[in-house]
């Protein structure tokens, strides 16, 4: 097969994609006859490009670079200068692809990875078609990064354009949260452990909380982030995908089609939040100056590149309901934010507490049982249970934890690239899910644009706006 990588001189390629390919290679998961063609605007020779790949492995690979085989790995790479707007430029690319296919005796199976600015996706796809590069005798696949559109309308337009060249089966929309090993484990855990499946429903569960908190600010991405906000950057994609993965009914065989169907049913069943209701269920916030992990940091409005008095959201929290029999009346709370006190992605399932409101037991310190999936940066599954301390005679919440050694775990991009090579779409976002996610988000986006709900400031390094705590307190809960 051939992997054509648009944006091969960019950050994602250096940090994630080359190391992921190398680790797949070390694990024997890369086809031995593979041609990898990197594209960019800068003029490089093949050798210089190969050395760049090598350097990125040394810096970012989770496993040490092995001198005895790294040369063989980088010899799979070629480089081609490409002006994505210029149709003729694609002719050179086609020649190189075909030359390598002949040299290596490989079939015309071509995978196009678009690690480029979102506004280039359309033009590249259409040029792949007009240059006939996408006319292959074997299979073809297109991998696209988020963001997929900027609202419901643009997402639909983009999808329509892509569909002219690739059919849905050939489009792999990457959401790197779906590549995180613990997220991939969610459905298999339920599948393989009937006790979990028994607990996983509205009879037992009081609420579900999904958190993706970050300590970083907007880094050097003001141009993008000031337009996107946390709602587009994290909520529409990563958080809703985590929600789907948590709430799906376990399919019988776990096939990609079944998982897709189940995920779609979850997002289809989301109770819509109208523009008018947004302020009841949604909290938006923006960080002010503060201290994160012991360092003073500036507020969002002072970040270079942010428009003066920007009302962009760097924090988003929401209360959602899934209107199906499994989740009737069980709130799901999701939240994400930049410049919070800790980096943590986790899913917490709070079970019903039959002692709640019973002072005899509440006074003794009984807390609800929690099932906690830590996804990032540490990976673990834990169960919070109440144990009685014999000396104090009080109950103490105690964690039974299984921790995963994250150093030996493959990274998101490794798992996702390997799936894409295999043609397995289980952990990619399907069009319907993406469309329905935008559909749910759209009225909220409009409420943000019309400034129809408060924008709560929160100090950098805090837990986020207090209003987000009140959202749960209204229902008698608190964030875990
Ligand atoms: C990206 C967002 O998709 O995910 C970033 O664009 C965010 O703003 C990142 O920082 C978080 O990813 P992770 O894997 O570090 O949780």
Overall pLDDT confidence: 95
Number of strands: 17
Number of separate helices: 15
- What's the arrangement of strands in the largest beta sheet? 16-15-14-13-7-12-11-8-17
Provide the structure class. Answer: alpha/beta
Terminal Cα separation, in Å? 46 Å
Coarse shape:
globular
Please outline the major beta sheet.
9 strands, mixed
Low-confidence segments, given as residue ranges, are none
Bound ligands, each once? 6-O-phosphono-beta-D-glucopyranose
Could you tell me the strand content as a percent range?
15-25%
Helix content: 25-40%
Radius of gyration over all CA atoms, rounded: 24 Å
Characterization of this structure:
It is a single chain. The chain has 480 residues and is of the alpha/beta class. 38% of the residues lie in helices and 22% in strands. The protein has helices at 11-26, 46-60, 67-74, 89-104, 121-130, 152-163, 181-192, 194-199, 222-247, 256-268, 278-281, 359-362, 412-422, 431-449, 466-473, and strands at 2-6, 35-40, 77-81, 110-114, 140-144, 171-173, 205-213, 282-288, 290-292, 295-297, 315-320, 332-337, 344-351, 370-376, 379-389, 394-404, 455-459. Strands 16-15-14-13-7-12-11-8-17 form a 9-stranded mixed beta sheet, with helices on both faces. A 6-stranded parallel beta sheet has the order 3-2-1-4-5-6, sandwiched between helices. Strands 9-10 form a two-stranded antiparallel ribbon. Strand 1, helix 1 (11-26) and strand 2 (35-40) form a beta-alpha-beta unit. Helix 1 packs across helix 13 (412-422). It starts with a strand and ends in a 7-residue tail after the last helix. 6-O-phosphono-beta-D-glucopyranose binds at residues 214, 233, 345, 376.
């Amino acid at each position: 097969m051939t992997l054509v990588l648009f944006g091969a001189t960019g950050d994602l390629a250096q940090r994630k994609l080359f190391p992921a390919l190398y680790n797949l290679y070390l694990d024997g998961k890369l086809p031995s006859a593979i041609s990898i063609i990197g594209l960019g605007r800068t003029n490089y020779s093949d050798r210089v490009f190969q050395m760049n790949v090598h350097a990125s492995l040394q810096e970012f690979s989770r496993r040490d670079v092995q001198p005895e085989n790294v040369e063989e790995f980088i010899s799979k790479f070629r480089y081609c200068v490409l002006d994505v707007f210029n149709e003729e430029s694609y002719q050179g690319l086609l020649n190189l692809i075909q030359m390598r296919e002949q040299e290596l005796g490989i079939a015309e199976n071509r995978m196009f990875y678009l690690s480029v600015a979102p506004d280039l996706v359309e033009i590249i796809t259409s040029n792949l078609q007009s240059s006939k590069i996408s006319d292959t005798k074997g299979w073809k696949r297109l991998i696209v990064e988020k963001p997929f559109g900027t609202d419901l309308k643009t997402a639909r337009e983009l999808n329509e354009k892509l569909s002219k060249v690739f059919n849905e089966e050939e489009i792999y929309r990457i959401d790197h949260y779906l590549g995180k090993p613990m997220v991939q484990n969610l459905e298999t855990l339920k599948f393989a452990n009937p006790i979990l499946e028994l607990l996983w429903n509205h009879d037992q569960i009081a609420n579900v909380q999904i958190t993706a908190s970050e300590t970083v600010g907007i880094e050097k991405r003001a141009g993008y982030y000031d337009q996107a906000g946390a709602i587009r950057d994290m909520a529409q994609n990563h958080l809703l995908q985590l929600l789907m993965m948590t709430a799906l009914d376990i399919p019988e065989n776990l096939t990609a089609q079944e998982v897709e169907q189940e995920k779609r049913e979850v997002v289809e069943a989301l109770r819509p939040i109208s523009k008018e209701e947004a302020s009841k269920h949604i909290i938006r916030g923006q960080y002010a100056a503060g201290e994160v992990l012991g360092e003073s940091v500036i507020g969002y409005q002072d970040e270079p590149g942010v428009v003066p008095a920007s009302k962009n959201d760097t924090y988003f929290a929401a209360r959602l309901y899934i209107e199906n029999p499994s989740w009737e009346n069980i709130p799901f709370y999701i939240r994400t934010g930049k410049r919070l006190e800790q980096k943590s992605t986790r899913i917490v399932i709070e079970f019903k507490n039959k002692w709640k409101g019973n002072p005899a037991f509440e006074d003794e310190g009984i807390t609800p049982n929690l099932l906690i999936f830590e996804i990032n940066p540490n990976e673990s599954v834990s169960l919070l249970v109440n144990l009685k301390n014999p000396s104090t005679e009080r109950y103490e919440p105690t964690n039974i934890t299984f921790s995963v050694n994250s150093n030996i775990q493959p990274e998101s991009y490794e798992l996702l690239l390997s799936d894409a090579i295999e043609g397995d779409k289980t952990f990619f976002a399907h069009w319907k899910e993406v469309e329905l996610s935008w559909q749910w988000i759209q009225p909220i986006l409009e409420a943000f644009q019309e400034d129809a709900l408060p924008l709560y400031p929160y100090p950098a390094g805090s837990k986020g706006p207090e209003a987000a705590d009140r959202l749960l307190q209204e229902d008698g809960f608190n964030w875990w």
